[in-house]
Amino acid sequence: MSKVNIPPVVLIPVRSPLLVGVNVDSKPNFSTYGAGGHVSSSPPIMAVPFMHQRHTLKGVRENNNFSVNVPSTKQANEVDYCGVVSGRDTDKVLDCKFDVFYGELKTAPMISQCPVNFECRVLHLLDLGSHVVAIAEVVKTYISEECLTDGKPDMETINPLLVGMTGVSSSYYALGGEVAERGVAGKEIKRG
Amino acid sequence: MSKVNIPPVVLIPVRSPLLVGVNVDSKPNFSTYGAGGHVSSSPPIMAVPFMHQRHTLKGVRENNNFSVNVPSTKQANEVDYCGVVSGRDTDKVLDCKFDVFYGELKTAPMISQCPVNFECRVLHLLDLGSHVVAIAEVVKTYISEECLTDGKPDMETINPLLVGMTGVSSSYYALGGEVAERGVAGKEIKRG
Q1: Angle at B163 between CA B39 and CA A138, to 5 degrees
Q2: Bridge-partner residues for A167, per DSSP?
Q3: Which contiguous run of DSSP H or E holds residue A83?
Q4: What is the pLDDT of residues B107-161, one digit of tens each?
Q5: pTM value?
Q6: Measured between CA atoms, how close is B46 to chain A, in angstroms?
Q7: Do residue B171 and residue A182 have CB atoms under 8 angstroms apart?
Q8: CA-CA distances (angstroms) from residue A171 to A7, A91, B24, B156, B188?
Q9: A91 interaction partners in chain B (CB closer than 8 Å)
Q10: How far, in Å, CA of A130 to CA of A142, rounded?
């Protein structure tokens, strides 16, 4: 298979867009992130990058915490809006009609309409150039009651929104069909 | 919407599984990661977590670099296999029939069959508990020639594999249908 070099870039074509919530000057604000992720399990830790000039980073520094809200396909418009509009210029909570709730950390606003939410307490802030990366512990995880089946999170009712960015296209997607079962597919490979 | 607390966990239900490549004792080895992500753009930086006991971490420490290989739906069996089998016990390159190539860093093995590959140079290793997180700069990005359309990465031919983990189910998926266009969907929201 012939390979071509393109300028160095983190080309992970599909990601889960996340709505990151902070209080800025004691008011809730949400911004969309197509980056970051899970970086440790015990304790559960997220890495979330913030651009230096982002309104959101001001709130992270004020409170030393933030929330992560996982949107469903129903929130595509709100996810897109919160990615292009700054909380400096408008009240995104009002514009998007977000029903905001707070939890254990008191100052990390969460969006009731998003099926999954977690509160994160900042452990480290690393300046990596264009972005400051927050390494943060997940202290509480919330899920909408209707997204549980037998007490467990259910993909079908969570119905997560995905974002695809490749250069040719940039769109929001739903999850597609099952390709293979995890823990089973690998049994097709024979040990040499 | 009624919310329920579950034990604190990074519940991002859908992720892009990544095949991480390292040389261990000068031999290529690949392991599957369902975590980590993009944490800065300029320079392009990834955060990738490694479990302390992982064979892969030995290779990262030896070479101070690794590769990230983005699989397509065609590699579901190999992705699953490389997530459950250790390179201590078998030669996963032979078992999976991976066609391995090297690039600028000389010791970060890449998989020709994966549509997208990047070489990463480690900047920091952070011990966060269960995992050591590598903060690493992407120095070169490679893409299979047939995945370019007009010189740009094309989602359709990349055809990325996704992994979904929710508790109820744990499977590999393809990307689904388009829900909304990025940069357009948000225009449905009116500024208050």
Answers
A1: 50
A2: none
A3: helix A76-84
A4: 999 999 999 999 999 999 999 999 999 999 999 999 999 999 999 999 999 999 9
A5: 0.96
A6: 7
A7: yes
A8: 22, 25, 39, 12, 15
A9: 192
A10: 31
